[in-house]
């Protein structure tokens, strides 16, 4: 890679139009001899005028195989000359344009049965796909043709059998349009999908290593969020055990950075030992949220610790000085995958001394032969709990080795800021602040939210934007930008009770309903004011990220509970009902949407805290509330002095000025109490009373 610094990029090449872009991924390719265009109307107009197909290449800045293909092919003068002569070449950052990526990834899966990045798709000038592949080697390897022979055959078809290409493009486009319309499978709501999901998780669970099925293994933390709710609903201890095993195996594995903390994108093996080394903001946030909820459900402090460690990585390595969070770090440094994270045994012995070095190597799985290309990825090979003395020893070694590692060339930083991923980070920090009682985490979430308010919201057009980098906000926000950010705002409100966050969550949700509503209680991924490429996409399945639709439905239900808004609740319920048959058929395709089904099935609850002297007076009640795992509950604060209250609330004022909590559960409101134990008993449905207040 030809980067001049961690954030530097090669100078623009003649004919290459990426040099003025803001995307780090596009700027990485600005020095290629390929005459790249960004995604724009002008590129497709040129293809029409010159009667050329479009070579569309999609990737992201921290993608290892994207770098490999660039080095092998896009920096190669012969390949570039062929592309420039026969195609209009277009580069897309999938993180900036998830709509483009989702559409053509679906086309790739239709045509090849698989997908991944880099994603290379050949299009007609009308944007219809007729060929797709992921990584294409420079030269033939293992039966796969090299890029020039492959493209030579396609150019011959374009020139000699255009009708066949156009028919293929028309056929794939029709399939994409049909998929874009979606299929409703409405049915009466029951817990059937939850029971099937629990059975499927149990069948797929890797009892030895945690996680599900075999290699490769992705964290997919929203699966763990669902399992925790299944444990809470059915009292299934195995569901909790699956979560605990998975989180602890990940934390002990090579997929987790044992020195600097934070989780890598996925493991290529079943035991979580060998990662694909890039670190993504969204993985960190979702892992933190799952760890925090596991802590609430189990009381095991190890989960609180791993959440705090991961947030520490975000705070030190991915946070912009003004509060927003960058996208992630590359897998590569100095031209090699993972080199920043790898260790030689001799190097460790030299740094720590023979005695301490040998002990560290034993505890952290370091050998002379290594476990990755002759070097070592640090991991905990033994799952037995560490003694306090061992913990102190390892922490001292960690700090010493981290100081040495910090002198290495660090992986490339993708320093763009995305609204959606920041929404997840805000949710993670806010939940941590509330659950762990750490105001610093809450303040970090507040700074990130303010960054989005100030720099990623277009006040003139009342529109959330997608991306900010180097002073420029651009690209109209997608459904996931609205839904993920609103998720963060709801969590932030329940962590600090500033009414601004609740108000903004309501405002943005109303905007979302107008911009993305499909007229059938579901959501398009792109706004009504945005670009439509062949069709307006509707993505309902969760992947490495929850679907925007899934998060939007849960937001509707939670905001309805907080504001006593029946209309919002009905919208959320209909959003579940319309997909019920599909959820029952393949529930593990919808883990996050099943969180909403769990909510609708109830029982749900709402706690209203009331105090004349501000939030601080209710600290003990708040602390006990957040310590419990209450997945279908919301928390609201009513300040008597300032007259702040929830619309539609019917709250009994505090007695004799004492702070109180009033629990409303499934339509029944209990008398206010200042006893945290009574509050929790009411929330869990084990409290019986007469209305004189006696148990």
Return the domain count. Answer: 4
Which second-level CATH architecture of the largest domain applies? Alpha/alpha barrel
How many helical stretches?
25
- Helix proportion of residues, in percent? 40-55%
Architecture overview:
The protein is α+β, with helices and mostly antiparallel strands and 695 residues long. A hairpin with a 5-residue loop joins strand 4 and strand 5. The protein is globular, with a radius of gyration of 26 Å. It is built from 25 helices and 20 strands. It has four domains: 24-181, Glutaredoxin (3-Layer(aba) Sandwich), CATH 3.40.30.10; 192-331 and 414-601, Alpha/alpha barrel (Glycosyltransferase), CATH 1.50.10; 339-410, no CATH class; 605-683. It has a five-stranded mixed β-sheet, sandwiched between helices. Residues 1-6, 646-650 and 688-695 have low confidence and may be disordered.
Summarize the entry for a quick read.
The protein is of the alpha+beta class. It has 25 helices and 20 strands.
Structural topology:
Blueprint: H1 24-28, E1 37-38, H2 41-50, E2 54-59, H3 64-74, H4 77-86, E3 88-93, H5 98-112, E4 119-123, E5 129-133, H6 147-160, H7 162-181, H8 192-204, H9 221-234, H10 237-252, E6 266-267, E7 275-276, E8 279-280, H11 281-298, H12 301-317, E9 328-329, E10 332-333, E11 336-337, H13 345-352, H14 354-363, H15 388-405, E12 413-414, E13 417-418, H16 419-436, H17 439-455, E14 457-458, E15 463-469, E16 472-476, H18 479-496, H19 499-516, H20 548-563, H21 566-577, H22 580-585, H23 591-601, E17 605-611, H24 619-627, E18 633-639, E19 660-665, E20 668-669, H25 676-683
Parallel strand pairs: 1-3, 2-3, 17-18
Antiparallel strand pairs: 2-4, 4-5, 6-7, 8-9, 9-12, 10-11, 13-15, 14-15, 15-16, 17-19, 19-20
Helix pairs in contact: 4-6, 5-7, 9-10, 9-11, 9-23, 10-11, 11-12, 11-16, 12-16, 13-14, 16-17, 16-18, 17-18, 18-19, 18-20, 19-20, 20-21, 20-23, 24-25
């Amino acid at each position: 890679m030809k980067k001049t610094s961690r954030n530097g990029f090669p100078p623009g090449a003649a004919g290459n139009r990426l040099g003025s872009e803001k995307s780090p991924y596009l700027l990485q390719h600005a020095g290629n001899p390929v005459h790249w265009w960004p995604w724009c109307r002008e590129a497709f107009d040129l293809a029409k005028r010159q009667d050329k197909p479009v070579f569309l290449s999609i990737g992201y800045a921290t993608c290892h195989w994207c770098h490999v293909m660039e080095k092998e092919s896009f920096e190669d003068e012969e390949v570039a000359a062929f592309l420039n002569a026969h195609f209009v070449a277009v580069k897309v950052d999938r993180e900036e344009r998830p709509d483009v990526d989702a559409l053509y990834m679906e086309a790739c899966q239709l045509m090849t049965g698989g997908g991944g990045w880099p994603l290379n798709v050949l299009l007609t000038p009308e944007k219809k796909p007729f060929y797709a592949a992921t990584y294409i080697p420079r030269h033939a390897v293992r039966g796969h043709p090299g890029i020039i022979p492959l493209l030579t055959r396609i150019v011959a078809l374009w020139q000699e059998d255009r009708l066949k290409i156009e028919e293929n493009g028309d056929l794939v486009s029709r399939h994409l349009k049909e998929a874009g319309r979606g299929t409703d499978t409405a049915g009466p709501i029951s817990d059937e999908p939850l029971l099937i999901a629990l059975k499927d998780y149990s069948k797929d669970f890797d009892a030895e290593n945690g996680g599900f099925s075999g290699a490769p293994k992705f964290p997919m933390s929203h699966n763990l969020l669902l399992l925790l709710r299944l444990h809470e609903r059915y009292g299934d201890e195995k569901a909790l055990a699956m979560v605990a095993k998975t989180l602890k195996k990940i934390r002990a594995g090579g997929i987790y950075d044992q020195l600097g903390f934070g989780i890598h994108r996925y493991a290529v093996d079943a035991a979580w030992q060998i990662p694909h080394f890039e670190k993504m903001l969204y993985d960190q946030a979702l892992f933190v949220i799952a760890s925090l909820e596991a802590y609430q459900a189990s009381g095991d402090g190890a989960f609180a610790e791993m959440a705090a460690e991961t947030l520490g990585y975000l705070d030190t390595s991915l946070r912009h000085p003004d509060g927003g969070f960058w996208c992630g770090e590359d897998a590569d440094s100095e031209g090699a995958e993972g080199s920043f994270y790898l260790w030689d045994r001799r190097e460790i012995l030299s740094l720590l001394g023979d005695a301490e070095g040998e002990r560290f190597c034993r505890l952290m799985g370091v050998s002379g032969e290594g476990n990755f290309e002759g070097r070592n990825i640090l991991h905990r090979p033994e799952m037995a709990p560490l003694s306090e003395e061992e913990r102190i020893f390892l922490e001292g070694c960690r700090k010493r080795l981290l100081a040495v590692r910090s002198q290495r060339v660090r992986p490339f930083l993708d320093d763009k800021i995305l609204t959606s991923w920041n929404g997840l980070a805000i949710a993670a920090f806010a939940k941590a602040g509330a659950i762990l009682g750490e105001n610093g985490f809450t303040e970090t979430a507040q700074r990130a939210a303010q960054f989005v308010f100030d720099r990623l919201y277009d006040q003139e057009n009342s529109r959330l934007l997608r991306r900010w980098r180097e002073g420029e906000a651009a690209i109209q926000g997608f459904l996931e930008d609205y839904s993920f950010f609103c998720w963060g705002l709801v969590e932030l409100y329940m962590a600090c009770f500033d009414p601004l966050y609740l108000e903004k969550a309501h405002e943005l949700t109303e905007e979302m309903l107008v911009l993305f509503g499909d007229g059938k209680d579901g959501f398009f991924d792109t706004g009504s004011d945005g670009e439509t490429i062949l069709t307006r996409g509707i993505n309902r399945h969760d992947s490495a990220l929850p679907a925007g639709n899934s998060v939007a439905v849960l937001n509707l239900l939670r905001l309805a509970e907080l504001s006593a808004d029946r209309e919002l609740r009905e919208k959320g319920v209909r959003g579940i009902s319309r997909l019920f048959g599909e959820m029952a058929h393949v529930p593990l395709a919808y883990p996050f949407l099943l969180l909403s089904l769990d909510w609708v099935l109830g029982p749900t609850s709402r706690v209203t805290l009331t105090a004349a002297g501000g939030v601080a007076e209710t600290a003990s009640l708040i602390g006990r509330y957040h310590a419990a795992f209450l997945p279908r509950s919301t928390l609201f604060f009513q300040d008597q002095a300032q007259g702040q209250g929830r619309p539609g609330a019917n709250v009994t004022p505090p007695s004799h000025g004492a702070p109180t909590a009033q629990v409303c559960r499934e339509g029944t409101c209990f008398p206010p109490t200042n006893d945290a134990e009574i509050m929790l008993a009411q929330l869990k449905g084990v409290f019986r009373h007469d209305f004189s207040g006696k148990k």
